[in-house]
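Service request form, structural biology core

Requester: graduate student, group of Dr. S.
Request type: structure prediction, single chain
Budget code: on file
Notes: please return the result as C-alpha cells.

Sequence provided:
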Amino acid sequence: MRYLVFSSLVVTSALSGCSLYYESQAKDMIQRQMDAMVFVEGGEFMMGNPGGWSVRSDTIPAHRVIVDDFYIQKYEVTQGDFELFMDVTNYKHSNNSYEILREEHPERFQPNLPAVVSWTDASEFCRWLGSQADSNIRLPTEAQWEYAARSGGKMLRYATANGHAEEGVTMAALPTQYREQRKTLPKPPGTFPANPLGLYDMSGNAAEWVRDYYRADYYDRSPINNPEGPENPIIESWSNEPFRVLRGGDFRDFSGNTTVTRRKAIERVTNESTGFRCSFSGN
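Core staff response, request fulfilled:
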C-alpha cells in the first residue's frame, strides 16, 4: 500500500472571502483529507456474490471486472469536516431532510461521526476537494468500492482485518432489538482495525454512497473494464429522484447485511445511516 502525500497543497480561490479562521481550518482539513488517500493497485476480480455472501438477487451473478489504479480515502468523511466545507463555500444542503434529521436526532450530528449527507452533498464535497487539490476527485464507483473493500478483490466476505465480522472487535457491535437499534450510533471513523489495504469501516458503520445509478439487473450486463454503473437510472415515483447505490451496510444492520457485496438502492436524499469517502484515479 502507499499513501498520497501533498506536501505543499495550493488552496484555490474557492476559499477567498472566508474569514482567516475558516480559511486556516479549511486548509488543514483539505491537507488531512488528501493525506488520507490510499493507493489501490488495479487488477482483475470477480465482482459480486460468489455464493452465500448475500440473499439479495441484485448481488449476482459474480462477474469479471478489471479496475485501473486509483486512490480512495482510508476514513469516512466526518460531520465536522462536512460542516466546515459548508461554512467555507456557503454550500446549502440539498434537501429539507437534513434540518429535520438534525432537529430530531442531534446526537447523530456529532463532529467526529460519519457525515450525514445525501448523494448530492457527498458528490459536491468530493468535487470541491478535487478543485482544491487540482485532482478529479469524485465518489468511488461501485466497482472501485468493492475492489478496495475486498483488499484488491480478495475473497473476503467483510471489509475487516481478517475478513470476518466480529462484533465489537473488527466492526461495530450490532444490536438485536429494534428499540436498541433506534438508539445506536455509528462509531468515529477508525475505531476498529483497518482491512489489509489500510481502509477503515467499510462494513457496518455508515452505508457509503458510490457514484453509480442503481439497477437490480446491472450485473447481468456490466462491462469488464472500469464499469461505472447503468446509464439509465430507475426513478422513484414519489420523489422523482434517481436511485443510487449504497455499499457496506450501516450501524443498524445485522452483520449479514454488511458484507462487501451487499447493495442498497436509495434515492439520493439525506439519511442518517449514510456516509461517504472520496476517490480518484491515477498512477
